[in-house]
């Protein structure tokens, strides 16, 4: 009996962590979304018993999720921003990770340190630094004008989608490169050499060997950065501040920050979580299928 | 899309179900009964909504009495709960020195966050800086204690109109701290010296902004202030209206600004206008009084303008209270009295930019002495501004929901 429980007991800290920091908070959000609000202080009053839950707020939120309604607009914009930013992160991050894993030799350690440096500075500070750089008289505009690319300052902070997406890419790309690097670094060199021995060009080897073998890494890294991007509200607040670029995180923040409708904020969180759960399910399905079909390297 | 076009809105749901969310509590039943009896709109806890035409005497409760007179101040440390950067640290240090106590200032970002912390019961603060909107809630929830005026001799220094203000007749629970107007700031080097004043209705300037101002126009990130601006654009002076069509039209007007100039919502007007990121913004007078300090080196203060109507400006006042659970209530009263001292008030103003409503502070003198540049003299608030001003005051729960829904629709872009 003791031996039977020995190895499973190693999972206990992780399971406890999951219960305390994920399942309980998730249930608390449900209890708030289907609960009520204290009429004096507007504080949310969670209702813990599901048989007492009120569903009107959720119905109202779902109703406003239909095309053309405010929440639909914000969700659609958020998905578009995240998709474009993710593609941008991959376009920048994959070549960097590939170079680090395959071609960097003596500079590898130095480049890895450079990649880790952004983790030392908080995301908020990095965004605020960007504001300083992108101001009308900031370094970016001054440099572009000095070299003759711009004749007058460009309004980077003027409520443009492109600025918010670029900021998302800048903020999250380091989180994508490291797991991708780990995946690419694990691909055995002799597998690539086998491809070349069989007559494949370097490009063909990359397309038919490296890329498929790094697919799980791409998915994992994409999930790692997409999930926080969906809930991001500060990037838009700092870089744009315009409703034109508002994301779903901004709406959730609006309802949680004040007023008598905290339950709406919680309902929006649940809707977002449900949508992300669908994406996560796809990721898990692909991962499980790949682990079953691919031969061990 | 307007909330009125929705098949089911949260507001409709609340109205149709008799305020189903709130109706679960006894407080709401009390509220409705009181409303029926008094025939006037009630706020949380059955306290009437304060209006200039309907001054409110906040209730006293048997289980929340003021402290006895004639006690000596406690030894502290005094725990002060305030907005960030909303008191001159020098004034705090002077209080510490004069009373031989330590003062700890803890800050909050907004009143909802403050209330959440205060109602958690674990805060242990003595003094809380409140606003009109939240004072009656704090009283209804017995978060703040009634004041003993024997400890507040400096209350006589306050403007007559605020010694016994309409939102707290007799200053039972609060003393006024600052007054401000909400107006319009602009860059004179971009929009000209006259700015909004060149228009018949200066509030229209946001809707007259040409496309080249795109990204350079901002409004205050506060639903009451921003929607209030849109109401004034339509010449609506009841800034506390709960008429759905009026509020929703204001929301639609704001949405027009999103389309025309990518209007921004923030509370950083004083730095954004100073550094040129914004050319036109709704702004609080207190922020703009100090905005010249944020100008880049070599840029004169004359590039900043601030307009508010000479009569009928949007005015607000913030206040200080003593919390019910204060461990140092006598010392807390001493702190309230300290900031009402004209000398301390002036020191506070020189750092804050927000004016204390004290008789001894001469509006002309603060400009003459250089506390405020001449071109920003309009940021000075006089008692007449307060008396004849428009105020953003508490709403019913249904009204709050309506305003928030409208704001959410605008913010969705």
List its traits.
heterodimer; A: 297 residues; mainly alpha; MetI-like fold; two-stranded antiparallel sheet; globular; B: 413 residues; alpha/beta; D-Maltodextrin-Binding Protein, domain 2; 2 domains; 9-stranded mixed sheet; 9 strands; 36% helix; disordered N terminus
Write structural notes for this entry.
The complex is a heterodimer of chains A (about 300) and B (about 425). With about 300 residues, chain A is an all-alpha fold. Chain A has a domain at about 65-255: MetI-like (MetI-like fold, Orthogonal Bundle), CATH 1.10.3720.10. Helix content of chain A is about 70%, strand content about 0%. Chain A is built from 14 helices and 2 strands. Chain A has a two-stranded antiparallel sheet. In chain A, strand 1 (about 35) and strand 2 (about 45) form a beta hairpin. The model of chain A has no long low-confidence stretch (mean pLDDT about 90). Chain B is of the alpha/beta class and about 425 residues long. Helices cover about 35% and strands about 15% of the residues of chain B. In chain B, strands 1, 2, 3, 4, 5, 6, 7, 8 and 9 form a 9-stranded mixed sheet that branches.
């Amino acid at each position: 009996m003791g031996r039977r429980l020995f190895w499973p007991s190693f999972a206990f800290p992780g399971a406890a962590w999951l219960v305390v920091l994920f399942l309980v908070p998730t249930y608390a959000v449900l209890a708030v979304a289907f609960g009520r609000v204290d009429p004096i202080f507007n504080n949310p009053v969670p209702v813990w018993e599901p048989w007492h839950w009120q569903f009107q707020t959720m119905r109202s939120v779902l109703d406003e999720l239909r095309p053309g309604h405010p929440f639909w607009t914000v969700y659609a914009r958020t998905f578009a921003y995240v998709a474009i930013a993710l593609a941008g992160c991959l376009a920048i991050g994959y070549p960097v990770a590939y170079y680090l894993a395959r071609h960097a030799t003596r500079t590898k350690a130095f480049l890895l340190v450079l990649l880790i440096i952004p983790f030392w500075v908080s995301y908020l500070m990095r965004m605020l630094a960007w504001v300083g750089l992108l101001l009308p008289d900031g370094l970016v505009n001054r440099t572009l004008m000095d070299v003759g690319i711009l004749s007058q300052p460009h309004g980077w902070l003027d409520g443009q989608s492109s600025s918010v997406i670029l900021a998302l890419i800048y903020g999250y790309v380091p989180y994508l490169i490291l797991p991708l690097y780990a995946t690419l670094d694990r691909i055995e060199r002799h597998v690539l050499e086998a491809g070349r021995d069989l007559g494949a060009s370097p490009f063909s080897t990359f397309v038919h060997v490296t890329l498929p073998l790094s697919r799980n890494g791409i998915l994992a890294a994409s999930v790692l950065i997409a999930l926080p991007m969906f809930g991001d509200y500060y990037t838009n607040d700092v870089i744009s501040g315009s409703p034109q670029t508002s994301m779903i995180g901004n709406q959730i923040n609006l309802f949680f920050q004040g007023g008598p409708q905290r339950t709406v904020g919680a309902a929006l969180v649940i809707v977002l979580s449900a949508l992300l759960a669908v994406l996560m399910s796809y990721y898990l399905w692909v991962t499980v299928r790949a682990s079953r079909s691919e031969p061990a390297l | 899309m307007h909330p009125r076009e929705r098949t089911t809105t949260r507001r409709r749901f609340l109205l149709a179900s008799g305020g189903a969310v709130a109706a679960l509590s006894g407080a709401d039943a009390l509220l409705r009964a009181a409303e029926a009896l008094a025939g006037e709109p009630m706020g949380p806890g059955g306290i009437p909504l304060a209006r200039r035409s309907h001054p409110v005497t906040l209730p006293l409760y048997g289980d929340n009495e003021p402290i006895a007179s004639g006690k000596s101040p406690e030894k502290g440390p005094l725990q002060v709960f305030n907005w960030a950067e909303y008191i001159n640290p020098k004034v705090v240090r002077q209080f510490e020195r004069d009373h031989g106590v330590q003062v700890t200032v803890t800050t909050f970002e907004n009143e909802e966050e403050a209330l959440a912390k205060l109602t958690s019961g674990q805060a242990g603060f003595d003094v809380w800086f409140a606003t009109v909107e939240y004072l009656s809630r704090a009283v209804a929830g017995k978060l703040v204690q009634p004041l003993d005026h024997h400890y507040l001799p400096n209350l006589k220094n306050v403007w007559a109109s605020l010694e016994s203000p309409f939102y707290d007749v007799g200053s039972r629970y609060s003393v006024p701290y600052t007054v401000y107007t909400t107006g319009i700031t602009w860059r004179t080097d971009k929009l000209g010296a006259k700015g909004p004043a060149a228009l018949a209705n200066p509030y229209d300037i946001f809707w007259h902004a040409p496309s080249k101002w795109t990204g350079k126009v901002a409004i205050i990130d506060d639903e009451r202030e921003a929607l209030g601006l849109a109401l004034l654009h339509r010449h609506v002076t009841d800034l506390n209206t709960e008429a759905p069509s009026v509020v929703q039209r204001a929301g639609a007007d704001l949405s027009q600004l999103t389309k025309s100039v990518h209007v921004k919502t923030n509370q950083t007007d004083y730095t954004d206008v100073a550094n040129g990121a914004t050319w036109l913004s709704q702004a609080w007078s207190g922020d703009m009084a100090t905005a010249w300090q944020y100008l880049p080196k070599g840029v004169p203060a004359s590039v900043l303008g601030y307009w508010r109507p000479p009569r009928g400006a949007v005015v607000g006042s913030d206040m200080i209270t003593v919390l019910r659970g204060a461990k140092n209530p006598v010392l807390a009263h001493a702190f309230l009295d300290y900031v009402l001292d004209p000398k301390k008030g002036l020191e506070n103003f020189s750092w804050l930019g927000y004016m204390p409503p004290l008789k001894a502070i001469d509006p002309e003198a603060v400009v003459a002495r250089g506390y405020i540049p001449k071109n920003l003299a309009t940021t000075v608030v006089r008692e007449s501004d307060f008396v004849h001003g428009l105020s953003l005051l508490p709403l019913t729960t249904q009204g709050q929901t309506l305003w928030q829904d409208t704001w959410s629709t605008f913010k969705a872009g």
